[in-house]
Amino acid sequence: MNVLVAGATGRMGGRVAAELARAPWVQRLRLTGRDEHRLAQLARVLGGREPAPEAVPGDVHEIAVAATRGVDLVVSCAGPAASTEEPLARASVDAGASYVSLNDDLTAAERVWALDGAAVAAGVTVVPGCGLSPGITDLLLDRAATELGTLDEVAVTVALSAADIASPAAARRALGALSGTATYLSGGRRVTDRAGGSPHLAYLPEPVGWVETVKVAHPGIVALRRTHPEVSEATFRLGLTERAAMDALRAAAAVRVDRAPALRRLWTIAGGPARALLERLPGRAGGWSAARVDVWGHNDGRARQVTLGIVDRLSNLATVTLVACARRIAAGGIRPGVLGIVEAFAADELLGELDGRGIRAARLEPIEV
């Protein structure tokens, strides 16, 4: 199978490219990225395979059509997803290539879901959001739901280490999540509010522990309404494991740095040294990121809560999941169209594969007091 890795020069993209360079099911590997020097360097490092990876430098918007031509599967780590996800997914569908991504932007996800008819007509499978969240959190939600006869309420909480948003692109994504609108379900209806509000302490699997989190927009709401339409309440929350980093991010979001180009450039320039300092601050998390999924419902007429969590380095959580999904699409047997991760793959099987790579989910039990 001919595979394209978009955004290969980023932290996640480089990891994914390295995984795919070793995969026996990948016949030809093509790499794209904005940084021509880093892209050529990556192609050389991975050049031990035959044929050698092909480097196609350029911005996604400029090269999407040309880069996707002649490939069977596009694996996207490109960002920011708000501007790259839909053009790349559309170019993939038009080229007759299946598509998987790390997309974590709600607006971009909705635009990709609108490509469902075109994907079915092209006979290709599109699965946006195959990282930590959306991705693993969807799998955990689906696994928890199997223990409940009726699903009523869902809460998805993600805590990222400042080390995992050290790149300018990742930092901008985090800032955007806190600067836009939060989306959730209330009374079965989709509701929007300003993101970054309703601060709440959440307990994540050790060594992360307690983290302040806030409401954000999340693409998981789209797949949730398709797979579990009975859910009436759903929230999505995000926090940084280092308190100082979270305070800095909330302050930047409060003054709407993302809305003013001049402020955004200044924040990006100044943010580099600041993020480096924040990474060195002492903290319990030690660079680990984590997620938990709380599901409330009924089983045999009795109210129950099921809570599952996971913790690891984000680079492992996201890239291992994305590559596992890509391999499953390459193996065939998945229906065409735009699908959520649990619509495309069996949650237990995919969680089992992650477990085999050392990424293990755990049950969080309440303590009677």
Question: Can you give me a brief rundown of this structure?
Answer:
The protein has 369 residues and is α/β, with parallel strands linked by helices. The chain has 14 helices and 16 strands.
Summarize the helices and strands and which ones pair or pack:
Elements: E1 2-6, H1 11-21, E2 28-33, H2 36-45, E3 54-57, H3 60-68, E4 73-76, H4 81-94, E5 98-101, H5 106-113, H6 116-122, E6 125-127, H7 136-145, E7 150-160, H8 168-179, E8 181-186, E9 189-194, E10 200-204, E11 209-215, H9 220-227, E12 233-240, H10 243-254, H11 261-280, E13 289-299, E14 302-312, H12 314-331, E15 337-338, H13 341-344, H14 347-356, E16 362-363
Parallel strand pairs: 1-2, 1-4, 2-3, 4-5, 5-6, 6-15, 7-12
Antiparallel strand pairs: 7-13, 8-9, 10-11, 11-12, 13-14, 14-16
Helix pairs in contact: 1-12, 3-4, 4-5, 7-14, 8-10
